[in-house]
Amino acid sequence: MKVTDLQTPALLVDAAALEHNLATMAAALPGPRLRPHVKAHKTTELARRQAAYGHRAFTCATIREVEGMVAAGLSDDLLLANEVLDARRLGALADRARITVAVDSPETVEAAAAGGLREVLVDVDVGLPRCGCAPGDAGRIADLARSKGLEVRGVMGYEGHLMLVADAGQRRTMTADCMALLSRAAADVGGEVVSAGGTGTYADNTVATEIQAGSYALMDTAYGAVGLPFRPALSVLGTVISASPPSSAVQPPWVVADVGLKSLGMDHGNPTVPGATVWFCSDEHVTFAPDEPRSVKVGDRVRVLPAHVDPTVALHAALHLVDGDTVVETWPVDLRGW
Amino acid sequence: MKVTDLQTPALLVDAAALEHNLATMAAALPGPRLRPHVKAHKTTELARRQAAYGHRAFTCATIREVEGMVAAGLSDDLLLANEVLDARRLGALADRARITVAVDSPETVEAAAAGGLREVLVDVDVGLPRCGCAPGDAGRIADLARSKGLEVRGVMGYEGHLMLVADAGQRRTMTADCMALLSRAAADVGGEVVSAGGTGTYADNTVATEIQAGSYALMDTAYGAVGLPFRPALSVLGTVISASPPSSAVQPPWVVADVGLKSLGMDHGNPTVPGATVWFCSDEHVTFAPDEPRSVKVGDRVRVLPAHVDPTVALHAALHLVDGDTVVETWPVDLRGW
Question: All domains of chain B, ordered by start, with CATH?
Fold first, then answer.
């Protein structure tokens, strides 16, 4: 099948860029040093490629992601790196998969035990105002978990506020400061796992025993400023459906493609169209002005680069792996929803 | 079923607010004066309620929406108010439904004819830089369509740039200016239909024979500034999964709920949490500071109001119609995708 045969909008993944990204990361963080985060692609076929590169343990953000990974047989070691107050759906899988959940409070410990889970990590606040207990409370949370019969594998802490720090030296220093907090908590908690990091700090974080990077596989344009060795692999294919009337009072000439804010993650702002300036997105449209007026015609195909990969993928039912103009494979985005 | 029994995040629609909105609009624009836009809710069960209020003709933004409406039997008169370059999937439904498509160029006329469609509207640029031919070209496009054997039902033109003009007098004047352009095109094109308007201008647009409003049913918070008689009906239910450590250097105290940018349309910015200040959203989290510190506890449920309704709905597989704490009905969001 050719790319031009696809119904638009359609999610495209450049096969060569994906392969480059997976190989580059596997060389830097081989096997269990990387616990790929599936939230970035929500696609078990892509996770299967990551497993083929030697990473058999995965990170998930939702219960649905854990369930889908188990259904796909990628169940060696699944971490739900998130807090849940109702763990019953996870507990129901405990005989078929190794599932570990993050806890950061008495309530989440209680939920893990009540839901029938066996293993937890203590989630520690290392500076991002989101989940995680105070570093000084981690030992107490671990003791509580053990008192409920849970195995405590160690700690996790996500330095998410550092992912886009552009200066490498500053990023490394700040990461070290965050990880000093996590190390202190790890000493109190015990266990072997120190899980942390992401695509932005994968090379800086030398404390974590495993890095939870996800974006590296498909790559956000925003990471371009950080100087990482990964390539943008994701785009949304659109068809140009309209061109501005020559008589329009609004100039320069613009065109409209059928890729809108229902097929693009918009939290990081407008997408990019190479060779053009994007004006705005509507539900099913992007209006943009080509640098070369009238160079883009009705019926042309365009590749739109979303500003944020993760939520873009979540809007599509399938992604198409492409090599130039050829569709190599089509994979269901099967980990959507909750 | 109770709201507290729902897995979170979950999309909630307040049944009373929805009923109020549908009744208010049906009183203002009875029967065929309104052609409800299904892109705002993507839910055939909700469209069925609109049909029960007397609106039997609908507006769609995607081929998938048209297909789903036909499958649901809501096929009396479906307008795809958008340009397509491949109309074959629509043409395949032509024996089961009345389907009209927008055209604004020789290419889109050709696609409509080649795809097996029978009826079109000429889409006219009335000032929003998106689709539509120049008003002075509409007659020529209509002639071309007729020469291809297509029935030309009239014109459409969307004054989308005026929807959020807050001053009612100014909005009315600007709407009249746009509709003067559309009227001139309508005179050249012929046919009976002048389709235009939206929730923001439904009471101002006195030229259109039918108004394409969609947002009125569930209502965006952004429309609050425009002084419309419709009520916000949509929220995303979340569970508070974490609270900030008392010792945190970041103050005031914050909490985290499991409603993030994968369950919220983010193009209009952050959501609102009543009684709190939202700091930021991550993929599966919203971090917010309650006005009353420590008033919100881990395990509490919260209702998060998205800034933009349409793309929020597109992220969910189902919506739950609720009356207070009771789930009255659960409807599949069955018009998603393309």
Answer: 3-10+231-332 (2.40.37.20), 15-220 (3.20.20.10)
